[in-house]
């Protein structure tokens, strides 16, 4: 049988962790023939809760689960990691300024980047879920100089999936009929879900829907503010859908996008589409053999340009702020 793949998950005792770990252990992340060894990272106060989750993982008797180890030390947690899911983060609390939030998260993602640099496997792939995800990914990446920058990604797949769901409802088609949707920019309220290059059953999605007012006043704000709507309804933030998107992100990265389709991932910019080099911004990407590539040559009209620029400007501001704080 195959050697287990080591998957490190941070924030393992949190609500996304609780939805995510069981899906990884059941084989949904890496496939039904790939055993996994889990390494969980938590803060000391939450180690006991993580141990409870590990007991439940045992009790599922998953044939693919080769072991679970729990750590409160990043250096140990990332040892030998082939895949790292960075879910744990410092949430914004009442009265917290953006600078405070970035600083608190710098205190988490800097040492985690260093630990990945020191101890992860050569083929390490990193997905940052914890918010502010793009900039947390940038901080970790900047502290892992020996790891190719392309291995650090942040999650906009939940936004992508939310956009698929909204568009499928509007058009009255299954999500499987929709291709080439794109989330551009930051995983924040400024993100831009783009349907102008998308297709529904092979035809241009914007033309098929043919409802600019819906696009501007309904679709874009609904997707961008969905996280807040979930909190309002559920009394807690998205967890199962976030875990599902994290599974999708890594699964697509490892197994490739379908011919004639792409996905959305926040990846380090090479300057494509005028996004400043080095920012970790969401793009349309294809994946193959475990590597991603930004889709090139899309025409961006004025409507899309303004929205992409607004979100990318926010990312530049976040980068400037963490630079000023000495975090990168
Ligand atoms: P929870 O507060 O339920 O869990 C977070 C866990 O992280 C806690 O158990 C905490 O002890 C742990 N943690 C904190 N600092 C840590 C550290 N230094 N090392 C290891 N663990 C640490 O939050 P949850 O609902 O699970 O959400 C986790 C993160 O995902 C949040 O930052 C949240 O904002 C973010 N999200 C990102 C999404 C995305 O699309 N990119 C969507 C969902 C979610 O909102």
- Pairing-aware structural class of the strands and helices? alpha/beta
Query: Could you tell me the mean pLDDT?
Result: 97
SSE order? EHEHEHEHEHEHEEEEEHHHHEEEH
Task: Return Rg in Å.
Answer: 19 Å
Count of alpha and pi helical runs: 11
> Sheet with the most strands?
6 strands, parallel
- Classify the beta-strand content into a percent band: 15-25%
The molecules bound to the chains, other than polymers, are: ligand NAX
- What's the N-to-C terminus distance? 42 Å
Catalogue the unreliable spans: none
State the helical fraction.
Answer: 40-55%
Q: Which descriptor suits the 3D outline? A: globular
Strands of the biggest beta sheet: in what spatial order? 3-2-1-4-5-6
Number of distinct beta strands: 14
Description:
- The chain has about 325 residues and is of the alpha/beta class.
- About 45% of the residues lie in helices and about 20% in strands.
- It is built from eleven helices and 14 strands.
- It has helices at about 15-25, 45-60, 75, 100-120, 135-140, 155-170, 205-210, 210-225, 225-235, 240-255, 300-325, and strands at about 5-10, 35-40, 65-70, 85, 125-130, 150-155, 180, 180-185, 190-195, 200, 205, 265-270, 280-290, 290-295.
- The strands form four sheets. The chain has a six-stranded parallel sheet, sandwiched between helices. It has a three-stranded antiparallel sheet with strand order 7-10-11. Strands 12-13-14 form a three-stranded antiparallel sheet.
- Strand 2 (about 35-40), helix 2 and strand 3 (about 65-70) form a beta-alpha-beta unit.
- Helix 5 (about 135-140) crosses helix 11 (about 300-325).
- Bound molecules: ligand NAX.
- Ligand NAX binds near residues 13, 133 and 238.
- Keywords: NAD, Oxidoreductase, Tricarboxylic acid cycle.
- Pfam families: Ldh_1_C (PF02866), Ldh_1_N (PF00056).
- Catalyzes the reversible oxidation of malate to oxaloacetate.
- Its EC number is 1.1.1.37.
């Amino acid at each position: 049988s195959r050697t287990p793949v080591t998957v490190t998950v941070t924030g393992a005792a949190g609500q996304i962790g609780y939805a995510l770990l069981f899906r990884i252990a059941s084989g949904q992340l890496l496939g039904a023939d790939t055993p996994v060894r889990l390494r969980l990272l938590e803060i000391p106060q939450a180690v006991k809760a993580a141990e409870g989750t590990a007991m439940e993982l045992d009790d599922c008797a998953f044939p693919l689960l080769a072991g679970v180890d729990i750590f409160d030390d990043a250096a140990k947690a990332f040892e030998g990691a082939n895949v790292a899911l960075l879910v744990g983060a410092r949430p914004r609390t009442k009265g917290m300024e953006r600078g405070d939030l970035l600083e608190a998260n710098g205190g988490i993602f800097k040492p985690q980047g260093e630990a990945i640099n020191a101890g992860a496997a050569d083929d390490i792939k990193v997905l940052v879920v914890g918010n502010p995800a793009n900039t947390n990914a940038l901080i970790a990446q900047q502290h892992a100089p020996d790891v190719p920058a392309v291995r650090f990604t942040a999650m906009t797949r939940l936004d992508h999936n939310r956009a698929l769901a909204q568009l499928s409802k509007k058009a009255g088609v299954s999500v499987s009929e929709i291709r080439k949707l794109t989330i551009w920019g930051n995983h924040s309220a400024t993100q831009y879900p783009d349907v102008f290059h998308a297709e529904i059953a092979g035809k241009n999605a914007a033309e098929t829907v043919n409802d600019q007012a819906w696009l501007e006043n309904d679709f874009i704000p609904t997707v961008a503010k969905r996280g807040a709507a979930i909190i309002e309804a559920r009394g807690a933030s998205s967890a199962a859908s976030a875990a599902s998107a994290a599974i999708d992100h890594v699964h697509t990265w490892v197994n490739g996008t379908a011919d004639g389709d792409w996905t959305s991932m926040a990846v380090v910019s090479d300057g494509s589409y005028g996004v400043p080099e080095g920012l970790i911004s969401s793009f349309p990407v294809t994946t193959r053999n475990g590597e991603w590539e930004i889709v090139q040559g899309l025409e961006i009209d004025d409507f899309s340009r303004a929205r992409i620029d607004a979100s990318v400007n926010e990312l530049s501001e976040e980068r400037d702020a963490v630079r000023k704080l000495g975090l990168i």
